[in-house]
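Entry type: protein chain
Record version: 2
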Amino acid sequence: MIISSSLSVRDHVDYILKVCNQRLYLLNKLKHAGLDEQGLATMFQAIVLSRVLYALPAWFGRLTQLDIGCINGLFRKAHRWQLSGHVYTVEQLAETADAGLFKAIASNPNHSLYQILPPFRPNQYSLRKRGDPLQLPIINTTLLKSTFINRCLFQFVLFLAPTSLSRRPGVDRPLSVALQMWCGR
């Protein structure tokens, strides 16, 4: 991953686009050599999509609209050249990757990133149920807002059902239990 001193990922996006365009050219040659659609789709996922997905939750929050447009343009080109049966968007891929990683973090207390999740909000009084069980951070800057954990907290944790997170006073339910209830396990 390439990150500049100003925390821009533009160089990383340029590198990914360069590599993926070379790989699209290779796939186009394989298509003209007679590789079938299923083989092309498998190769596309293996050599292009995997390159874009690598560490996507870490750098997606720093993408500009120009970067997003360039990556989506790559996916449109792949579809136009009939190398992929689906038009992917980086936003959809990032949301899927974020949800998967956040679920893995929240459901495993031994995960290395589990420690940076905020604690549960103390429930000292018998008040109405709140929609978010965690103490959500106060975000003052765009840079802080675009980090993986904060994106996921405001996107996924708010969907935790408040009735499923009721706790006995003084007993803190681990986040993994709450997430299992949320996911229906």
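Comment: Residues 10-88 form one domain.
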